[in-house]
Design brief:
The protein folds into two domains: 129 residues, Rossmann fold (3-Layer(aba) Sandwich); 164 residues, 3-Layer(aba) Sandwich (Rossmann fold). Helix 5 links the parallel strand 4 and strand 5. It starts with a strand and ends with a helix. It is built from 14 helices and eleven strands. It is of the alpha/beta class and 315 residues long. It is globular, with a radius of gyration of 20 Å.
């Protein structure tokens, strides 16, 4: 059993480990434990034999898991809840090293001793005790179905740049006026992608940018959004789940970084064309390994000083 509870991007980043375990140990049965809200991310993965979902109370989940008689647990989340699960199951296990002390040094003292290794490679190393090695094939994302682009988008937007405007934390997102600048500099069709929480901001951006910008925020399911990512000519995105889905489809990606940094190991994995957009040389960056509701210092230079022309220009 592999465990990873959240989030969309983190779960997509586990897919090489899932594939490598299943393909390199063909006789094994691979199960995955996550939250039910992330069902879509893994439901169509052919390397998973069975999905399990976290239930309340935890004892109910444990009863379900005990019935499976697992031989091994690969813990790619490594928190208190997963440690309880492993202890209660009492089988051989391996846990992902989050490198929290190294991250603390980078965030608080700006001392960078993070390994020059992507988190995907470290996920796979967690299964190395089984003899599993990285096959070098990158991320997986399996769509629920093929969608009709002409139904999802206006006829004028059948070839487009996908601009992912959301991110879980505000300090990982370009401000609205900066996103408008990006859209105004792109003369070809743009499709804004994001969840329901991004719908109003998407409408503001589209209204201020011109008819070449279509606001798709909050209009599509995750599967449809992933399909639109796959069909895009280029993806411009913050550090978010759709960024990793774009990497799974090997799309050209412009990845925009604010208060966090790629050195934390979460940049797009194994993409043919990648541009990292970040403001280097700021003494305050990174100010967090995750993000904040607003800039702790008030100036938000990590996003306000971004080179908008470079972000909009593509490859």
């Amino acid at each position: 059993m592999i465990i990873r509870f959240s989030s969309i991007g983190d779960i997509v980043l586990t897919t090489p480990a899932i594939r490598c375990i299943k393909q390199q140990i063909p006789a094994c049965e691979v199960h995955f434990l996550t939250k039910s809200s992330f069902h879509t991310v893994l439901a169509n993965n052919p390397y998973i034999d069975k999905l399990h979902f976290l239930k309340k109370p935890l004892a109910v989940t444990l009863d379900d898991l005990r019935a499976e008689h697992f031989d091994y647990v690969i813990d790619l989340h490594n928190n208190i809840r997963t440690r309880i699960i492993k202890f209660k199951l009492g089988v051989k296990s391996s846990a992902f090293d989050k490198l929290n002390f190294r991250k603390w040094l980078l965030v608080n003292l700006k001392v960078d001793i993070m390994p020059e290794k992507h988190i995907v490679d470290r996920y796979i190393e967690t299964a190395s005790f089984l003899g599993v090695k990285n096959d070098g094939k990158g991320l997986d994302y399996f769509l629920e179905e093929e969608h009709d682009l002409t139904v999802l988008l206006p006829q004028s937007h059948q070839q487009y740049t996908g601009l992912v405007i959301g991110a879980q934390h505000a300090t990982k997102r370009l401000p609205t006026h900066k996103l408008i600048e990006v859209c105004q500099r792109i003369k070809s069709p743009v499709v804004l992608l994001g969840g329901k929480e991004d719908k109003e901001r998407g409408a503001e951006i589209a209204s201020a940018s011109g008819v070449h910008v279509f606001n798709g925020c909050g209009k599509f399911t995750l599967d449809q959004s992933a399909f639109l990512v796959r069909e895009a000519q280029l993806i411009i995105t913050h550090d978010t789940g759709l960024m990793h889905i774009a990497a799974a489809f090997d799309k050209p990606i412009t990845s925009v970084w604010g208060n966090t940094v790629p050195q934390l190991g979460m940049y797009p994995y194994k993409t043919g064309q990648l541009k990292i957009a970040e403001v280097k040389g700021l003494s305050c960056r990174p100010c967090s390994k995750i993000g904040y509701k607003k800039c702790p210092r008030g100036h938000f230079k990590c996003m306000n000083d971004q080179d908008i022309e470079a972000i909009a220009s593509g490859f």
